[in-house]
């Protein structure tokens, strides 16, 4: 004779296509030990790449850990300062190799550059995290670039323009997607309001399973379950309203393959494409944020360019390419500060957009970690000490609104700590000789 009907605490209602909805606690469920997990692991990771460093003395904040004043370059972050962690005193010791390329290679992999100007010798953090958190999402990871393959890269895959490396096999380099219109179509063009895509109800697909379960429940359990499903329906409608494809920007005149026509010295200029960088950059940001919000992906990388950065910045009144102001035309800190401040404006916009999206009582930023990085610190000398790194978001318990100073640990320790925020217990990342353990004091 069988015992009384019981349900596991992990029981779900599963409908067509494998859609599953977790059940609330019911009296009919078997007792289980309570979980005392202190922190929910971060759920989304975004890395943002700004090429070729900054003007350090105009980047560093002043003050203490929790009472600090943003620097001129970071001033655009003022409205989202509470969502930010400014990191100071971290060195990129694993950036060993060609001066410009090695920082690109090491930034997300923590590995030294392969011999003879080679690629990374291990996977990038984004791909390691994607293998952990991507689940069944349609896009395991999303890598976008705005003005890519300039100068010596000639629009092709090179150690000078790649940040992402596969997590398996020979750690193959991953080329970012470049065409903003193709990206929009890939992410948002196949479904939309009215076609049964965005508006299809997940709850409808499990209705028959609920009908079979309900007669086996007591009055109190049935009331709890109906209340739970009603709340889910309310949340689902909210998600449908929030998960709207971003407006399709007019990118006429922008050539995503412009790098194919570039020259080593940057003298071949594509002024029409360069003038569209602000428009395309915002469009890329909006698509990345909405891809997260719509749960199309949980891992992303956004590159403003490559380590050559041989594109002009006419919207800032700068008619030479960025590398000209870095060292090709002699170090020009005033112009470079203007460039770095503009990047901060775009990054502050990104943080604000993620903070504004309600995911059901908390924001998209609350469950995410955003890492703003670059391939070197000092533009004229290629030095990679005191790297100008920023973090944003509260995923994994990251404590924001702080300015953290360190005594020159390797940035590999930062990669370890970022992995730990996602529940990965590792103690090294990349080349182990550059690791001493997780960077402290992030949570």
Sum this structure up briefly.
The chain is of the alpha/beta class. The chain contains eleven helices and 15 strands. It has helices at residues 56-59, 101-109, 125-133, 180-188, 207-213, 219-242, 271-275, 277-293, 322-328, 333-355, 411-421, and strands at residues 12-14, 20-22, 44-49, 62-63, 68-69, 84-88, 142-145, 164-165, 173-174, 299-303, 312-313, 318-321, 368-373, 389-392, 402-405.
Can you walk through the features of this model?
With 443 residues, the protein is an alpha/beta fold. The protein folds into two domains: 1-30 and 204-244, no CATH class; 44-189 and 253-434, Alkaline Phosphatase, subunit A. The chain is 28% helix and 12% strand. The chain has helices spanning 56-59, 101-109, 125-133, 180-188, 207-213, 219-242, 271-275, 277-293, 322-328, 333-355, 411-421, and strands spanning 12-14, 20-22, 44-49, 62-63, 68-69, 84-88, 142-145, 164-165, 173-174, 299-303, 312-313, 318-321, 368-373, 389-392, 402-405. The relative contact order is 0.22.
């Amino acid at each position: 004779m069988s015992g009384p009907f019981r349900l596991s605490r992990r029981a779900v209602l599963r409908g067509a296509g494998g859609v599953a909805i977790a059940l609330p606690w019911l009296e009919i469920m078997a007792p289980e030990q309570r979980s005392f997990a202190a922190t929910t692991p971060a759920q989304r990771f975004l890395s943002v790449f700004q090429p070729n460093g900054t003007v350090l003395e105009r980047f560093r904040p002043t003050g203490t850990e929790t009472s600090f004043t943003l620097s001129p370059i970071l001033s655009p972050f003022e409205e989202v300062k509470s969502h930010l962690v400014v990191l100071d005193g971290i060195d990129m010791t694993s950036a060993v190799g060609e001066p410009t390329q090695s920082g690109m290679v090491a930034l997300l992999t923590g590995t030294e550059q392969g011999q003879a100007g080679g690629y990374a010798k291990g996977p990038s953090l984004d791909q390691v995290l994607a293998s952990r958190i991507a689940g069944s999402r349609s896009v395991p990871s999303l890598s976008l670039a705005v003005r890519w393959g300039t100068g010596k890269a000639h629009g092709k895959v090179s150690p000078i323009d790649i940040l992402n490396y596969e997590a398996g096999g020979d750690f193959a380099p991953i080329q970012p997607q470049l065409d903003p219109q193709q990206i929009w179509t890939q992410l948002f063009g196949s479904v939309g309001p009215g076609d049964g895509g965005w508006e299809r109800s997940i709850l409808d697909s499990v209705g028959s399973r609920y009908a079979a379960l309900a007669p086996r429940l007591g009055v109190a359990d049935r009331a709890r379950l109906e209340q739970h499903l009603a709340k889910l329906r309310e949340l689902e409608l909210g998600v449908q309203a929030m998960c709207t494809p971003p407006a399709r920007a007019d990118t006429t005149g922008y050539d995503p393959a412009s790098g194919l026509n570039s020259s080593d010295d940057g003298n071949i200029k594509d002024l029409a494409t360069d003038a569209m960088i602000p428009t395309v950059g915002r469009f890329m940001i909006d698509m990345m944020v909405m891809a997260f919000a719509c749960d199309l992906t949980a891992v992303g990388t956004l590159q403003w360019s490559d380590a050559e950065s041989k594109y002009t910045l006419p919207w800032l009144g700068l008619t030479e390419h960025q590398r000209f102001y870095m060292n090709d035309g002699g170090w020009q800190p005033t112009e470079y500060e203007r460039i770095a401040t503009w990047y901060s404006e775009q990054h502050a916009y990104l943080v604000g957009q993620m903070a504004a999206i309600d995911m059901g009582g908390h924001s998209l930023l609350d469950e995410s970690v955003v890492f703003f990085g670059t391939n070197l610190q000092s533009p004229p000398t290629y030095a990679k000490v005191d790297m100008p790194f920023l973090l944003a978001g509260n995923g994994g318990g990251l404590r924001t609104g702080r300015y953290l100073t360190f005594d020159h640990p390797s940035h590999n320790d930062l990669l370890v700590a970022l992995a730990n925020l996602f529940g990965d217990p590792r103690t090294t990342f990349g080349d182990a000789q550059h690791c001493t353990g997780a960077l402290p004091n992030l949570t």
